[in-house]
Amino acid sequence: MDGMEEAAERPEEQARATPRRQDAQSGLNPEVSNTAQDMGALLEQYEETQHTQLRRGELVEGTVVLVDRDEILVDIGGKMEAVIATSELQNERGEMALRRGDHVSAVVIVPENAEGRPVISINRARAEIGWRDLQAKKDSEEVVTGEVVDHNKGGLIVSVDGVRGFVPLSQIVELRRGGSDEEVEEKLRSMRGQTMYLKVIEMNRRRNRLILSERAAAQERRAQQKDRLLSELQASEIRHGRVSSLTDFGAFVDLGGADGLIHLSELSWGQVQHPSQVLRVGQEVDVRVVGVDRENKKIALSLKQVEENPWTRIEQKYHVGDTVPAKITKLAQFGAFAELEPGVEGLVHISELSDERITHPKQVVREGENVQLRIIKIEPQRHRLGLSLRQAEDAGGYDYGGGFEAYSGASYVLDSGPSGSTTTDGEESEEEHAPPPEEPADTVHALPHEQSEPAASEPAANGTARVPER
Asked: Can you give the CATH number for the domain in which 116 is found?
């Protein structure tokens, strides 16, 4: 009985339970719908108020949507477009700085102006980005480029990546030291608008301080150019360069990134006592590369090897038996060296200086004297010439037909020689060449003897061979 009663009651309970579940389900839908509506309203409200939530100094990005003479509008994602500061509407040439569709980065200056628009600045954004880029380049020691925009008495003001920096006078390459204030001012003024290669040597973002150096950048770039040049140079190449400095041992030539050395012995085929006899600073020259030391980064150059070696045509120009003009260049115990032309030098052995017995060439000739010599031997392969003073004196004539330019077609006239050697009246001015007191002033004897008059073969008072009278 009880079971039947319970069974009879279950349909009613089930009937009562079903409406309750339906009521619960029907009550859920309005809640979900209300939640979705609330989220949409919040999103719309956020979009409406986004432009008012911008902060001064905030970096934003956007696209230019309007460009006219009065304003430039940029879509930065809010309900209201941002407007660019009027000071940035035009560039230095008076042209509109931006075009529609340009993508820009800017810094918020005013979150909301009177019209409800944010005011932004591209220049400030460039500066902000520039500071970050400059810090990275300083850390990596990179070279940067900057435009000279102004100057003061202390140096140049430059714009680098949108940031204004300062280049002190001591860090400007082209500025000469010791110049007057007017010269410095004129030079600084003339550099306005130029682009400079610089390195950051000091920066402080908080203090808005940026110090740069052109000298450091030049050294950096020169080191890079030198490495490149050293890898390219090959021995025997002809290169064009500019003389950068002169020293006692040679001349340095800038090849466009690296300096090479022309040793004193490679300046000329002739005798050179100092590079200033051949070259001057700033002179442009062609040189031959004679050696490249990549490990020690040294370059050896030659100026004379660009020209023809005069010994290659010596046999065509000179012949044994010719009497030629020459200049005494050096005295040694065994004889005297004489130069016929630049690069062609021969030896007058001591036995060929005089018919008299002498103990040193200085008893007959002096350095710098111009004399007539006879060629007695030619060895082109060994670059040797045998010369004779006494044989030229014995020949008594000027039979040289080689066409030596300095003397061709003209009678030979003895030069006065170096200062202090021979005076205009033919008397010796050096004590070592002065005649003994008892002898006539115009006679110099190789060795003391009893002749009161010099023989035709004896040296004259000026040290050159006396030409016999005909």
From this structure: 2.40.50.140
Q: Are strands 298-302 and 259-263 parallel, antiparallel or unpaired?
A: parallel
* Token pair 């050395």: residue: 261
Looking at the fold, whether 354 and 391 belong to one and the same domain comes out as yes
Q: In 3-state terms, what secondary structure has residue 144?
A: strand
Q: Residue 465 gets which letter from DSSP?
A: B
Q: Give buried/exposed letters for 301-315 (b at 16+ CB in 10 A, else e).
A: bbbbbeeeebbeebe
340 and 402 assigned to the same domain: yes
CA distance linking residue 207 with residue 57, whole number of Å: 17
Rounded distance, CA 328 to CA 419, Å? 15
Range of the domain at 116: 59-125
Tens-digit pLDDT profile for residues 350-405: 999 999 999 999 999 999 999 999 999 999 888 899 999 999 887 664 444 333 33
pLDDT digits (tens, 9 = 90+) for 322-339: 999 999 999 999 999 999
The C-alpha R_g of the chain, in whole angstroms, comes to 47
Which pLDDT score, from 0 to 100, does residue 39 have?
A: 64
Residues of the chain falling short of pLDDT 50: 1-9, 11-28, 51-52, 397-470
Question: Do residue 327 and residue 353 come from a single domain?
Answer: yes
- Looking at the fold, whether 215 and 262 belong to one and the same domain comes out as no
Indicate yes or no: pTM above 0.70.
no
Count CB-CB contacts under 10 A for residue 119. 19
429-436 contacts, C-beta under 8 A, 24 or more apart: 430/366, 432/362, 433/362, 433/366, 433/461, 433/463, 435/461
Q: ∠ CA(78), CA(83), CA(87), 5° rounding? A: 155
Cα separation, 389 vs 352, whole angstroms? 6
Is residue 212 domain-shared with residue 286, that is, in the same domain?
A: no
Into how many domains does the chain fold? Answer: 4
Confidence at residue 66, expressed as pLDDT on a 0 to 100 scale: 86
Length of the chain, in residues: 470
Residues 288 and 205 in one domain: no
* Residues 6, 340: Cα–Cα separation, whole Å: 148
Q: Which of 195, 219, 243 is at the close of a domain?
A: 219
Which DSSP string corresponds to 203-254? EETTTTEEEEEHHHHHHHHHHHHHHHHHHH--TT-EEEEEEEEEETTEEEEE
- 32 occurs within a structural domain: no
CB atoms within 10 A of CB 424: 6
**CB neighbourhood size of 171 (10 A):** 21
Tell me, yes or no, whether 162 lies in a domain.
Answer: yes
Domain annotation covers residue 29: no
